[in-house]
Write a structure and sequence with these properties.
The chain folds into two domains: about 150 residues, Rossmann fold (3-Layer(aba) Sandwich), CATH 3.40.50.11400; about 180 residues, Rossmann fold, CATH 3.40.50.11390. It starts with a helix and ends with a helix. The relative contact order is 0.12. Strand 3, helix 4 and strand 4 form a beta-alpha-beta unit. The chain is α/β, with parallel strands linked by helices. The strands form three sheets. A seven-stranded mixed sheet has the order 2-1-3-4-5-12-11, with helices on both faces. The chain contains 16 helices and 14 strands.
């Protein structure tokens, strides 16, 4: 009996020790700033996944998550102050902003001035790469440059003869979008495909989102009649993606991937797919969307990225920041320790089954590389067919130099 009692006491003490260890507060904190559910839900879901893995700072965990205002352009000082407030936490060792909306550069500057020991990572940067580069340690963009070639190559692999690029003047004034369109046209010419540019209304103009979407609904059938069923379509605006997908699913044509690809981009609304019960579970989301696409006859014609870019970027940058901190990487030695393959490993780890690739951003005007600006992209997934292994393709240098 004595041995039994002693055993119970020992077990109780051990359990108490384990419990105390489990409750031990995190040794460092990582700050994550995203948009709200209404502004950029996928980015926020990535932050929630980090909290699920490592706990909330409020409860002794590692992750402190805040959201920037929906009207961040008119509330820029509030946005800057919110991000900069991460520096007030003495345990803060890294700050991630995804998406890095206007004001992020100034917020990073203030953090760096107050706390030069904090790593600063920007996801999907909205500001000029040359402006934010000196303030941040790592800047991420989706790779519009490489994808200008790869989207056309994917369309060619699927047997497309024509490619329609849909946009409007505001978007075409952006350097990366303009460069991508030129690369798409050049690639079409080299692969023997016909490139067509079609103008659509800007949803921020007087016609609004509803008017722009109606325009797409009315014109896609006309464009298919004009260019033929083996035509691939691409549009630069998220709001116009949904009606584009709806018409392609109903009739003919191809859709390789969206401007910022995700199975959530346009497909649920276009095909009436209910996903509330699988929120954040991208394999389940992909399966459900794929079933809907195949049922509509879109197998082999319609594609996406299997995982949301916004979700993955928040999650991958969080994991990468944690790894850096645990290896004693600081802003002072970050560039010496940075390896592109380590960053891509974090992205690959966040998207089982889907591969990523990436390159260093090069300024088209100066020819100079911004070593801390990394352009990333995920493999293309075609519903009913699978991955196209586009991340294994080598983009010819001549396309990367087009401007």
């Amino acid at each position: 009996m004595k041995k039994f009692v002693v055993g119970l006491l020992t077990a109780a003490l051990f359990a108490g020790a384990v419990s105390a260890m489990a409750a031990e507060p995190a040794k460092f904190h990582i700050g994550v700033c995203t948009g709200t559910v209404s502004q950029s839900e996928d980015d926020l879901r990535g932050a929630e996944e980090l909290i699920k893995r490592y706990g909330d700072v409020a409860n002794g965990g590692m992750i402190k998550h805040i959201t920037y205002p929906d009207n961040f352009m008119t509330e820029q000082e509030t946005t800057i102050s919110q991000i900069a407030s991460f520096a007030d936490d003495p345990l803060m060792k890294a700050v991630i902003v995804n998406q890095a909306i206007p004001g992020t550069t100034e917020a990073f500057r203030r953090i760096r001035e107050a706390r030069p020991d904090i790593l600063l990572f920007a996801g999907e940067n909205h500001e000029d790469p040359g402006v934010i580069a000196p303030s941040g340690d790592l800047i991420i963009h989706s790779d519009s440059i490489a994808r200008g070639y790869l989207i056309i190559l994917a369309a060619h692999k699927l047997g497309c003869t024509d490619f329609v690029h849909i946009s409007f003047p505001r978007h075409m004034s952006y350097e990366l979008m303009s460069r991508r369109a030129k690369i798409m046209e050049a690639t079409c010419n080299d692969l023997g495909m016909k490139y067509h540019f079609e103008s659509a209304p800007d949803p921020t103009s007087d016609v609004g989102v509803a008017g722009a979407q109606q325009f797409i609904l009315e014109h896609v059938p006309q464009w298919l009649d004009k260019y033929g069923p083996n035509t691939a379509f691409f549009c630069t605006n998220d709001a116009e993606t949904e009606p584009l997908l709806k018409r392609i699913a109903e009739s003919k044509g191809f859709f390789i991937e969206a401007d910022l690809p995700s199975p959530l981009m346009g497909y649920p609304g276009a095909l009436g797919v209910e996903l509330s019960d699988v929120a954040g579970d991208f394999p389940a989301i992909l399966k459900r969307v794929e079933d809907a696409v195949v049922a509509k006859g879109g197998a082999g014609r319609m594609g996406t990225w299997a995982y949301s870019y916004g979700f993955t970027t928040t999650l991958a940058l969080g994991e990468y920041a944690k790894s850096c901190i645990e290896k004693d990487v600081t802003p002072k030695n970050f560039r010496r320790n940075f390896k592109r393959e380590d960053l891509l490993a974090a992205y690959n780890g966040a998207t089982p089954g889907a591969k990523w690739n990436g390159t260093v951003y090069m300024d088209a005007n100066t020819g100079l590389e911004l070593k801390n600006n990394i352009l990333v992209y995920q493999d293309t997934y075609i519903f009913g067919k699978g991955y196209l292994n586009m991340t294994d393709e080598v983009v010819p240098e001549k396309y990367l130099q087009l401007k």
